[in-house]
Every structure is written in structure tokens, then in C-alpha cells.
């Protein structure tokens, strides 16, 4: 009974940390990663079996980063629909809101089943990117947004490829692998819009 209570306490503390403790010293991404680390350590040290198979650090860190990136893509896609000059870029933003919104929902459901804590808001770096982009309008927005989409999707594809091979959790590995074609579509579309070959 003590083992189960210890696990519940660790999970509760993890959720509390991920939601923010009011100090402002940690952003939501760091809080979620720290909460997951605590849960993994408590499961490792207690030897207790929870209702979910514990995920490894590589898998939980990937889930946290994917959630943060997905939320950022949705926020930026919404900005594109209001701040872009080009209808093509507004449509691109709408596609990202839809696709990343669906991926975010799948990831949330998966994390819930796996007892993985995800950030409940954008991390500080992502917030800064969104805020900086939100100050731009028209053609200035179009250029900044599309350049960022090429850069971000290149990085995302690398992270998702790595997770699709390195994550120990089979469900997260599958999530990464099945999301890759959508990310590649976004990158290819961004390159066409910007005229970038590579």
C-alpha cells in the first residue's frame, strides 16, 4: 500500500509541477520534463507496477518537446490566418492548425494512457517566437513565418526520425513514425512557398 501511495504522490507532485508552482523559475516544458523524471525515478525505485507501462526518459522528453512544438505550430498557424498578406500563406497556416491540432490530440491521449506529463502551455522559447511573430504583419510576417516554418520543420523531422528509432516506448515510437509524413508535407509546402530547394 505504501508503494502505491508513493507512486500516487509522485504523480501528483509531477502534475503540480507541470501546471506551474507560481515561482516563475521554470517554464512549462522544463516542469513537465522534471515531473516525468520524478515519476520514472519513483517507479524505478519502488518496483511497483502502475496501470501504465512506464516510459523511458528519451520517450517522455520527446513527448514533451513534441507537445510544445505542436502547440507552437498551432499558435503560429492561427497568426498566419490573421497576419499574413498572402492567401497561400493563410491557407498554409490553416493546414498547420488542423494537422498539428490533430497530432496534439493524439499525443495527449497517448500521454494520458502512459501517465506522461505534458506541458499545459508553451515553453518560454516558443512563447517568445510566437510573440515576436505576432508583432509582424503583411509581407514582413509572410517572410518571417515561412522562413521559420522551413527551419522548424527541418528540426522537427530530425527529432521525429530520432524518436521513431530511439524511443523505447513502442506507442511513442509509432506516433513519431506516423507523424513524419505530415511533417514532411509541411516542409515541402513551405519550401515551395518560399522557393527554397533545400
From TrEMBL:
<dbReference type="InterPro" id="IPR025419">
    <property type="entry name" value="DUF4142"/>
</dbReference>
<feature type="domain" description="DUF4142">
    <location>
        <begin position="58"/>
        <end position="191"/>
    </location>
</feature>
<protein>
    <recommendedName>
        <fullName>DUF4142 domain-containing protein</fullName>
    </recommendedName>
</protein>
<dbReference type="Pfam" id="PF13628">
    <property type="entry name" value="DUF4142"/>
</dbReference>
<dbReference type="InterPro" id="IPR012347">
    <property type="entry name" value="Ferritin-like"/>
</dbReference>
